[in-house]
Every structure is written in structure tokens, then in C-alpha cells.
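Handout, section B. The chain below has 183 residues.
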Amino acid sequence: MVRAYGMSRALWLLLMAHEEDDLLKSLLFGKQRELEEGRAYLTKEKKPERALAYFRKAIESGFRPLYVTRQHPNHVLRAHAGKEIRVVWLSTTLGRDYIDPHNLNSLTNLVTNFVSDGPRAVILLDGLEYLMINNDFPRILNFLEYVNEQVAMKRAVLLLSVDDRAFEPKELALIERNTVALE
């Protein structure tokens, strides 16, 4: 029993020492999926950790980043790999990079303009649950369908990070229908 504990502790220490080592991670956990342009991806997670990892990887490979989140912009890392990250806060507070969650038209325009501004755009949308609180589900679904079409036409990438506990099974199934799951 002590030996098993020692081995798991040794593995933990090894993982911590090589946290950024992609080769070790791929050997231990499998290779991270490559993102395909023109697609929408979905991660089901309580906090946007996996989605952020994919987002960072996309930035490192040359994508222009837009992060739409419920987190305050001061709490979000604004630069990564030498590239500035545009952060838009879903909030009723007015400001330059703030979008009222009731105003899906403004959010739609923001995303559409961003993907139209140039090639290789990546959008991380973390806050779908908050949008659900402020809008009914059919409006949210229409928003997602339209954004998904824009992403496909402009060959961008959309990453959705959702806490599946916040959705009814039918709602989640409709969201999953036009996305690729990232596990």
C-alpha cells in the first residue's frame, strides 16, 4: 500500500515538474485534438480550463483571439505568446469591451465583425449559462446557429465552454448538434 502511494506521489511530482511538456502529456493522456478551421467545439466543464488550453494553443499557432466571458477583464490574462487577447465582458455595466447579456444582437455583431476582420479568428465563449439567465433558450439557440454559420463561412474557430448542469438535456442536445465535443 505504501509503495502504491509512493508511486502515485512520484507520478504527481513528475507531472508537476513537466507541466508544460506536451510530449509527456500526450504520452500520459493522449494527444490533444487539433482544431479545424470553420468548426464550433464544445467543452463540458465547470470552469473553462480545457477550453482555455485549446484557446491558448490556437493563439500560439497564429489565430487572432477573442474571449467573451463572464469574468471581469481585469481577472483575465490579456496577453499570451506575445499576442494581445481581446476580452469582452458579459455584464450590464456599460463600457468599451462590455456587452449587455440581454443584447444578443450586439454580441452577434461583435462576433460577426471579428471573424470578418481577417483570417484565422478564434473565439472562446465562456458564459452561455449567464446568457441563458438573461434570454430564453430559443434566442440563445438562434444566436449560436448564426454564429456557427459565420464561423463556418469565415473559416474561424468557435470554442464553447459550458457547465452542462445548467441546461436541460434537450437544450444541451440542441447545442451539441452543431458542435464537436472536446474531451
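Note. Strands lie at 39-44, 64-69, 79-80, 83-84, 86-90, 98-99, 121-126, 157-162, 180-181. Compare this with the example in section A.
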